[in-house]
DUF1885 family protein
Amino acid sequence: MPQSAYVKLVPASEKQVISIDELKDLLLYYRSITTKTGEQLSWGYADAAFPYTIEEKEEAEGKWFYLKGLDQRKNKYILVGIGTESEADADQEKQKQYIQFTLTDISTHGDKGKANEFCKFIASKLKGELHLFNGRVMYYYPKK
């Protein structure tokens, strides 16, 4: 059964709206900083830290893409998408955007661990609210 984790963009977040291309750029930025870490350690850390390729299908229509594992024995797939949810406030309805990481039926434990890492990285960069696969919530935005 598929599992999902969400990074919700709240009013205190860096951005209220994010595009799929900006999300891809964040993941590519993650790969570049882990590559630099690997160079400093003289180790191919980038392959271990981001063992995926970013692939998009035509039917995604700019709303989702998937991460395909380079070594299919360890990592299979993680679906990544963007959506909105309605939140009813006192007299008006607000739209909140979220980033969703979904594990498929064939995803491995390695995929779940990496998805948790990516969620935490993106939530910290965007100062969002992270709803993990196990239902727990982590707050990365400044509290007033």
Notes: The chain has a mean pLDDT of 89.
